[in-house]
Amino acid sequence: MTCAWEDCKKREYRASKYCFAHKEKARDRWKELMAKKERGRKDRDIRFSKIQADAVEAGMNAAKKCIPEPMYVEGVKEIYKVDKGVCGFAWVVHKPGNDSFSYWARKNGWERHYYGGVQWWCFDFGQSMEIKVAYCQAFSKSLNEAGIKAHYGSRID
Ligand SMILES: [Zn+2]
User: Fold this and answer.
1) Number of folded domains in the chain?
2) What is the CA(80)–ligand 1 centre distance, in A?
3) pLDDT higher than threshold 90 for residue 7
4) Which of 7, 21, 66, 155 could form a disulfide with 134 if both were Cys (CB 3.0 to 4.6 A apart)?
5) How far is ligand 1, taken at its centre, from the CA of residue 30, in Å?
6) Nearest-CA neighbor of 143 among 132, 134, 135, 151?
7) Which is nearest to 139 in space by CA: 117, 121, 115, 118?
8) Number of continuous H segments (helices) and E segments (strands) in the chain
9) pLDDT, tens digit, for every residue of 84-133?
10) Is residue 152 one of the residues assigned to a domain?
11) Is there a domain that residue 107 lies in?
C-alpha cells in the first residue's frame, strides 16, 4: 500500500498508513486537531456555565416575586392557614439526554430524568410548590431563550 498522505506515492512505513516522513506530520496534525477540539470543548463548557447561571438567576428572581396563594388546612378544631400554599415539587427537564448540553449538565448538578433527558430538581423554597414552579418556569424560559430546549414539571405532594 502507498502512503495515505495526499499525493504521496511512497510506501507505508511498517504498521503506519503513512510513509516515514508523513507519519510524523500526520501525528502533529492529529495533535493539533485534538488541541483544537479541547479548546472548543472548553469554550462550550464556559458557554453552558453562563447559560446555567443566567437560568438560576432568572429562577431566583421569579421566586422572589412569587407570592403563593395561601392554603387552608382543616384541623380537628380549627382551620389552619398555610402561607406558603400548596406543598409539592417542581423540576426542569432537558431532552435529548445525549446532546452536548446533557453531557455537560450531568457533571453540573443535573440528574438523569426518569423519562429520558436530564432533570434539574428544585431543592429550594421549602415545600412551596407555587414558588418552585415560578422558579422552574423562569429557569426553563431562560434556557429556551439561550437556545437550550427545556420544560418544567410539578407535582403536588
Ligand atoms: Zn508519504
Assistant:
1) 1
2) 84
3) yes
4) 66
5) 15
6) 151
7) 121
8) 3, 6
9) 888 999 999 999 999 999 999 999 999 999 889 999 999 988 888 999 99
10) yes
11) yes
Q: How far is the CA of 7 from the centre of ligand 1 (A)?
A: 8
| Global pTM exceeds 0.90 | no
How far away, in angstroms, is 36 Cα from ligand 1 center? 24
Q: CA-to-CA distance for 119 and 128, rounded, in angstroms?
A: 19
pLDDT on residue 73 = 82
> For the segment 41-65, what is each residue's pLDDT rounded down to a tens digit?
999 999 999 999 999 999 999 999 9
What whole-number percentage of the chain has pLDDT above 70?
100
Three-state DSSP state, 128:
strand
Q: Residue 81: what are its φ and ψ, rounded to 5°?
A: -100, 125
Domain membership flag for residue 13: no
For residue 37, the CA-to-ligand 1 centroid distance in Å is: 25
Beta strand residue intervals within the chain, DSSP E: 71-74, 79-82, 88-94, 111-112, 118-121, 151-156
- Residue 76: which pLDDT band, with cuts at 50, 70 and 90? confident
